[in-house]
Write a structure and sequence with these properties.
Elements: H1 14-23, H2 26-37, H3 40-53, H4 61-72, H5 76-85, H6 102-109, H7 113-128, H8 130-135, H9 140-144, H10 148-160, H11 168-177, H12 182-188, E1 192-193, E2 196-197, H13 224-231
Antiparallel strand pairs: 1-2
């Protein structure tokens, strides 16, 4: 249900949308962002101002949503703004292993979740080393040794660019809420239905209509131990 504070329609409504964008609840902000995006350059100006004012704070999924709107717009002004203020994206790409996570950020900003998931697993194999890169999957012992910094970067990328729906921390929160019951987790996040595992790639949902925690897949077909190492990692403590 749309909040009565929110006015839709013409350019004259831009100023009336500014306040709910800045001070509204997450639900209101979620509604306001696409409305401003549909009001042309004036609406994009408000979104750019909003993002600029918040640039020194850790990015949230609200920032990610605004960034995504600007990133996918046809506005030269918006593209110049992002290049000048967020040249490598909205999430700082920290890595203790000098790994480049910018391809994931670009794919997530474009909402190409399937490609982003594929590159995420590739980057996790890079973290594990040359042998994992060659085999293209992970041992749980390798995951245990991942630097917390890198896992946190990967997680933040997914959370920020998915309206808070995806990410390892989201999966962990669901897992803990289910008493660490794996069978219940697989059902809850859409990886299994009854006795049938979800088939890769066509049976997975590669957009925001997916269940919460559906992505990233993170080596889903290799069993519980990799996932257990991932969700129990010290990065989340």
């Amino acid at each position: 249900m749309t909040d009565p504070m929110i006015v839709s329609g013409t350019t004259s409504n831009i100023e009336s949308l500014r306040q709910p964008l800045v001070a509204g609840s997450l639900q209101i902000q979620q509604q306001v962002i696409p409305q401003l995006a549909n009001l042309g350059e004036g609406g994009l100006d408000v979104l750019m101002e909003f993002l600029y004012e918040r640039r020194k704070n850790p990015a949230t999924w609200v920032d990610g949503k605004v960034y995504q709107v600007l990133y996918t717009s046809d506005s030269p002004k918006a593209k110049e703004f992002l290049q000048n203020n967020f040249p490598s994206g909205i999430v700082p790409l920290k890595s203790d292993c000098n790994i480049d996570y910018s391809p994931i950020q670009k794919l997530l900003a474009a909402q190409d979740f399937q490609a982003a998931d594929r590159i995420t697993i590739q980057k996790m194999c890079e973290l594990a080393g040359p042998t994992a890169i060659q085999r293209k999957w992970l041992y749980f012992t390798e995951v245990e040794n991942f630097p917390a910094t890198d896992l946190q970067t990967l997680n933040t990328l997914w959370v920020v660019h998915s309206e808070g729906k995806f990410g390892f921390s989201v999966q962990r929160e669901i897992w803990l809420s289910l008493g660490k019951n794996w069978d219940n987790l697989w059902e809850k996040i859409g990886w299994k239905k009854g006795n049938n595992w979800t088939r890769y790639p066509n049976e997975f949902t590669w957009n925001l209509s997916a269940p919460k925690g559906h992505l990233p897949l993170s080596n889903q077909l290799r069993g519980v131990r990799v996932m257990a190492s991932l969700l129990s990692h010290s990065a989340w403590s």
